Amino acid sequence: MTHSNILAIKHSCFNHENNHENYICVMNKTPEKCLKCNGTLENEMIIQLLSPYSNAHQSILFTSYPLSRIAFISSDNNSNTSNNSSIVHYQPNTNLHCGVVDSEGKVYHYTNQYGIQYDTIGWEQSIIINVSELTKCDNLTSFKWNEIIYSIVNDFKQSYHNRMIQHDDYDCLDFVVDIIKYAMDDQQVNRILIAQWLSIQLEWIILYEDIRKQLESGTLQVISKLHHSVTCQL
């Protein structure tokens, strides 16, 4: 799915009554005049709203960079596999599936039925979280992340049967937590922490899709207080 570029323009007619940073949203290109006051737009602050979706299968060329990716997609209730499960149509009641991504773009994930598998397709529209960035752990490079993934996957496969007897409720998020715990050498990492990281991205998906649909229908959209992690100033 190809998404049009959404631009946010800060203009005085939206901000003179209060101190909020209000932005008018437009699709693809900046209009010559404000859609509200009809005033000429000159030297305005223009920000591109970054798409909340990323291709988890994109490979990483420089593995010395602090990048350790985990990925989330929507999961079909009737399937234990994740292929062809886009996050684009996320709603609050959507079930999610997650995995860890190596530098080649292989997504390693866990299901009760198949254990650990890796996918080279099916995660083209995912939520991607960079653990190194969120935790400010610059020494957690893509190369180190690879080593940790491969080590845990190998250990897991060797002890799979015993592990399932002891932990029959183990799921994909537990697998991701185990990887991050090992990478960070921090036993305080848990499901709640990852859910907190994820919640920001899920809120952005809902807002982004609402803005896009409203713009496509011709409705004027105004948003305020953009979060720096979802914008890029032009």
UniProtKB/TrEMBL annotation:
Signal peptide, first to last residue: none
Identification of the protein by name: MKRN2 opposite strand protein-like C-terminal domain-containing protein
Residue ranges occupied by any MKRN2 opposite strand protein-like C-terminal domain in the UniProt entry: 82-184
InterPro entries, sorted: MKRN2OS-like, MKRN2OS-like_C
Native organism: Schistosoma margrebowiei
Organism classification: Eukaryota, Metazoa, Spiralia, Lophotrochozoa, Platyhelminthes
Domain of life assignment: Eukaryota
